[in-house]
Amino acid sequence: MENEYSFLRPFSEAGQRFVFNGKSLAMVQVDDDISDFLNKVKIHGIDQARVIFGESRGKECLETVLRQIKEMMRLDSTLQMPHHPSIGTNSSVDIHEVYLSLTTECNLSCRYCYAERIETSAPRFMTKETAQQSVEFLISRSSASHPLTIVLWGGEPLLNMNVLEFVLRFTSGQMQRLKRSVLFATTTNGTLLTPEASSLLARYRVAVNVSLDGDEQCHDAYRVFRSGMGSFSSISRHLPSYLANTQSYFPEFVPRARMTVTHRTSQHLFENYRAIWDLGIPIVWCKEVDWVAGDPEYVLNEEDFSALDDQFSSLRKFILEEFDSPRARRYYPQIWWDLHGIHQRRAKRYTCGSGFRSVSINTDGSLSSCYHLFDRLEFRCGHVSDDFIPITCYQPEDRLVDNMPACNHCDIKYLCSGGCVAKAIAHSGCPTIPSTAECRMSRVYQDHCLRLYASLMVSPQASTIRQLLSISPMHFAGVAHA
């Protein structure tokens, strides 16, 4: 029973009491007695909580609370889990997603960049020949039963525009001939996102993530050219044409920014969200820095995580207040991004399919389980001219969050899914021990999402939010561009 209770998260928000069941991903509103008892369980454990609560509220009240909690725990307990991944034999491997590294070069020298710390003898740029060989390999090793996702990667992928355009054109032609689906994505620093580049990406329906850390001051503190000059003005100059091309050629895609949070910027998260929204990008997703272990200028400490709690609280308050203004629809995309998984009770059992469903193809055509690990020989998975060799240094089944001891009793494990494999390896040398900083960041962010969801579900706009969170991304564009 102790194990079952560990998945129940009691919290108060918007003047109401709630319990989130981390096993079923169900959230329910509860009375003061249930909330008080579960808070005591979190502090004292189930046995001691029974004694303390029974002495203060009486045996009859305790029995009523226990009965109500038992019923609550049965609520929607038949949650359907995603398919259990297995690596099986080499012939059974089915690649769903690939990171295609077009170049190891970048025109920026971001001070916290993980790639700056990787030594490699790989060619600086992928050739068209290697790119074609890679695409042909992927088509042969992926199933027609689902789309193949190709993420155009770097370095800065737009530095190799000739090969990038070749990959889009050649892959689209091949998949059209085979009557199969392909999805393209990329992450760019935005400095080369010229009208011509954004038009090409939009016409091939490439989902673009722009790396943007907030307002000019926060962004330029770290994301600089090799000369030391900040990159914010260069990015903001290209954004209007990028947004216009996206709306013209790829209207169902909602533009998004990837914000890196550091020690120096943690106290500005709320204003940085707003700065990016004001630039016309509707969705912001943020990640911590933990590749530069031990560097106090970048890595978040406990004071920073406490500050982030306050920043997310300000963000929730702002979003809720905006529902009384004509600008409310402007924030629907962010709400959808943060909350649709909770609303649809979408359990995540593993973060990525690194090494069995997802691979990285390096500039020389060699295969790695992850682009973060391509310099580590033990994570090599073959070559596009040869075959895919499943890695043996760890078993993907071990990376199921249910099989990770550190996550056994975590009440958000099906929202977080255990974190990044590569970060775990970089910090502990073990893929099943999550990065401490990433774990802490995940708890802060998921707490924000759960509290925002609870607040919205008891607000006058609850029916509007339920409708918003029930639609699919392909029907979301009308909201995003309204």
What's the gist of this structure?
By secondary structure, this protein is an alpha/beta fold. The protein is built from 17 helices and 12 strands.
Question: Can you walk me through this structure?
Answer:
The protein has helices at 2-5, 32-44, 46-57, 59-74, 128-140, 161-177, 195-203, 216-220, 232-249, 269-278, 302-322, 332-343, 413-416, 421-428, 436-457, 462-470, 477-480, and strands spanning 8-13, 16-21, 26-30, 97-101, 148-153, 182-188, 206-211, 256-261, 283-288, 358-361, 366-368, 380-383. Helix 7 (195-203) links the parallel strand 6 and strand 7 (206-211). Helix 2 packs across helix 3 and helix 5 (128-140) runs parallel beside helix 6 (161-177). With 482 residues, it is an alpha/beta fold. The longest helix has 22 residues, at 436-457. Strands 9-8-7-6-5-4-10-11-12 form a nine-stranded mixed sheet. Strands 1-2-3 form a three-stranded antiparallel sheet, sandwiched between helices.
Average pLDDT works out at 89
How helix-rich are the residues, as a percent range? 40-55%
Strand order of the largest sheet: 9-8-7-6-5-4-10-11-12
Specify the CATH architecture of the largest domain: Alpha-Beta Barrel
Radius of gyration: 24 Å
Tell me, briefly, the overall form.
globular
* Total strand segments: 12
- Write the H/E string, N to C: HEEEHHHEHEHEHEHHEHEHHEEEHHHHH
Number of domains: 2
Strand content range: 5-15%
